[in-house]
Amino acid sequence: MPRSIQEILDHADELAQQLEGYEPDPSDERAVEEYLLERAAVARARTERELVDAVTRARGKGVSWQRIGTILGTSAQAAQQRYGPVVEPA
């Protein structure tokens, strides 16, 4: 639903006040290693999503499981077992 410019500005002011008044709590902090691990997990999930999308498009264009496996550095059977149920649901 559209909002007026004034409503948007008022909301921005509210957010600014909340942020200016924020006092960090020691429990808010976490180790750098945990942050890096989380970033790596998110990157892996995004990459896996990209792979699924690419395999789906490739199969849609008739690319063989053999070729997909070769490109992914695995066998045709391994590629089909990993991506087949997602790409070609029964």
Notes on the protein architecture:
The structure is a single chain. The chain has helices spanning 5-20, 32-60, 65-72, 76-87. With 90 residues, it is an all-alpha fold. Helix 3 packs across helix 4 (76-87). The model has no long low-confidence stretch (mean pLDDT 91).
Structural topology:
Layout: H1 5-20, H2 32-60, H3 65-72, H4 76-87
Helix pairs in contact: 3-4
Tags for this entry?
4 helices, 90 residues, mainly alpha
SS-derived structural category: mainly alpha
pLDDT averaged residue by residue:
91
Strand elements, count: 0
Query: Main β-sheet: number of strands, strand sense, barrel status?
Result: none
Order of helices and strands: HHHH
Please tally the helical runs, counting DSSP H or I stretches of 4 or more residues: 4
Helix content: over 70%
Taking Cα atoms only, what radius of gyration do you get, to the nearest Å? 23 Å
Q: How far is the N terminus from the C terminus? A: 40 Å
Low-confidence stretches: none
Strand content: under 5%
Shape: elongated
Compose a concise summary of this entry:
With 90 residues, the protein is mainly α.
